[in-house]
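Researcher: Go.
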Amino acid sequence: MKRNPIRDLTLTSVFAAIILVMTFVPQVGFITLGITELTLIHIPVLIGVFLLPKRYALVLGFVFGLGSLLRALQVNAGIAIAFINPLVSILPRLLFVLVSIYLFKGIQAIDGKFKKSDVVIFSFVALVSVVGVFYSSSAIADFAGWSKPVLNFIALIISTVLISSYYAFIAGKKKESILYPSVLLLSSLMHTIIVLTAILLFSRQLLVDLLQTQNVIGILVAIAATNGLVEAFLAALIGTPIILALKQVSENH
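Model: Structure:
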């Protein structure tokens, strides 16, 4: 599809505005859950990764990070304080965009290039999901002291439901329907990992003081395995139909 500079600039402006609205309207882009937050702002950024050139996608990543920094200055409490540091708020979001771009290109290069490539992609995403849910249950058991066998059994049920839902979502649709939710899911997980790693590297002492424990790695693993999975599946569920609709509009014009 031939690039249209005006269209790209317009879409970038619209997505940037959406990101800022989601950042500063309470409980829209950041949904508070105890000491942590469920982040949904990465979804319009990821949509931009699919539809825009790299430089504009990076602009959206910067707006995302800058909004996080400004919001942290506004809140100035709890774990939000960590995001006052640009190395935690801005840098991870730029890295997240770059990772997402190359992940998209990598999976796109595989999709349809050999027989049963869609099965390979589906199997990889399913494997990542199962491993994530399993380690989520283990991290929660270690952190909360709950029964690990019981949580592992629950994790098995959740994994089955998630994989079945993923299959039902992509079954019978266009070939590209497996590409978009797969990249959205994996990129969202990478966003969680990159941001939490930045917090660990640059704001570890803040977490120790806030949580009154030295086991900050265990807590971050629990957050990554729980919030990260929810954010990933929401990204795939919300982002895929929007991307397909916008691409259809672009192709028709």
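Model: The chain has a mean pLDDT of 81.
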